[in-house]
Design a protein that fits this description.
The complex is a heterodimer of chains A (224) and B (318). With 224 residues, chain A is an all-alpha fold. Chain A has eleven helices and no strands. The longest helix of chain A is centred in the C-terminal third of the chain and has 26 residues, at 195-220. Chain B is globular and about 70 Å long. Chain B is mostly helical and 318 residues long. Chain B has 14 helices and no strands. Among the domains of chain B are: 82-152, no CATH class; 189-314, no CATH class. The chains are: A mainly alpha (224), B mainly alpha (318).
Amino acid sequence: MLTLIGVAIVILGFALKLNPLLVVVAAAIATGLAAGIDMVAIVSDFGRAFTQNRYMALVWLTLPVIGMLEKNGLKERAQALIARVGAATTGRVLMLYMLIRQLTASLGLTAFGGHAAMVRPLVAPMAEAAAENRYGELPQETRDLIRAHAAAADNIGLFYGEDIFLAIGSVLLIKAYLDQAGYPFTPLQIALWAIPTAIAAYVIHAFRLWRLDRRLKAGLGKAP
Amino acid sequence: MSVMDGIYLLLGLMFAAAAWYNLRDRSNPKHLKRALFWALYSVTFLFGSLLPPFLVGCLAIGMALLAGIGGLGKSGAPEPSEEERHAGAARFRNRLFVPALLIPAVTVLGTLLLQNYRPGGKPLVELKDATLVALGVSVVVALLVGLWMLRQPFRVPLTESRRLIDAVGPVLALPQLLAVLGAIFAVSGVGQVVAGMVGKFIPVDSALAVVTAYCLGMTLFTLVMGNAFAAFPVMTAGIGLPLIVKLHGGDAAIMGALGMLAGYSGTLMTPLAANFNIVPAALLELPDQNGVIKVQIPTGLALLAVNTALMYFLVFRF
């Protein structure tokens, strides 16, 4: 029971909006102590796991390229291109991006996209520009809402696309787990059942993006 | 030195540059703290494979203390001016997209190559590292092409990465810290305790109740752990296999596939999935760190209902 203290610290810490780094470190140390591990061993486990998970920071390696391109007008160019497409709306731009993200992920190409490499420099500016072309200068809350939707479209496309691919981590994890429990399946037999959800995810979220367009139109005025 | 160590070296240099520019940033009264934060992070990349784990643990805890107590102040990283950006857009036009698209293109091609090209029957890098190595190579290619195409001095990528690193802030290291927390939860047996608690409250003879408990359990557990992969073995051992498969005769493959997807609803709704939810909010400079989660909640809940219904109708039929 006491081992759940870390979970409680995390929930409380995030709810109170304390510094997330401090919350996570406190939760890790408290959980380890509650499980009867001594302090030196906890810090060593912490360091070992920190080193093992350094690969999670690799996405940041794109920042020098993205920053240099931003300084030279990448966002502005992306916006100028969208301005030429009369049919472009925020919802449609994001629907198209989500479709590309989901299809490439379902082929195992999960590296195509991402928040640092695609959403910040290209997708979010295009989605914002599509609304700007129709309704002029946008209030900041509207910009923030559109940006949040751009990040969401990336996540949803990725999550519900990659599970169809046979050699992806999640399918292999399910297979490995069921194998050792005495239920052997091929990856295909597992990945197949992710297809209905993948379609539902696209339809549901595309519907919400369509509603976003309606909401922008109602809030910001008539389309020209 | 492995290829991965080489790539970590590049990351270490990038964070060292961020530390250096912050060290000289007199506009921020806390510039020393901010510089030290990125310097510590840089050390874990430059020398992480050589340092004893205890020391790396101390460095990581030191980062959390620096960021958590009193904050790091406001970075004085210069923003590129509007004239500069518009002039660049007018001058370089669609050439600007070339380095940006080279990153995913080279990553994808490089991954396929590293996975399939085996001179002498041996792959060039470990297969699990193929995507990571390809990403590292793609960035180097995109950087060189970008520097040449845009005629930029070498310091620009470093000053600009420092601007973006400071814009994201300490949250940048959060996904890595959360992975550490997951590892510590695992060795401490947190999962078993939670699964045991959920298991106590289910009316086991109702197939619908069992399926609902499993899917809801996957979502809730993922909300708390931040990761559906961590929730899956625990919930499947606690509810999925004993109740859905053994007691009610459900199909294990369908249960596994849809159960994992039910967990993804949790991923869409939790700040603990920091790399998907909190980091992009920082990258897109949203005032609310939960801004991305808020727009994902309706879709997450709808898909939880879809997965539960699909599992109930399919799992006992095949």
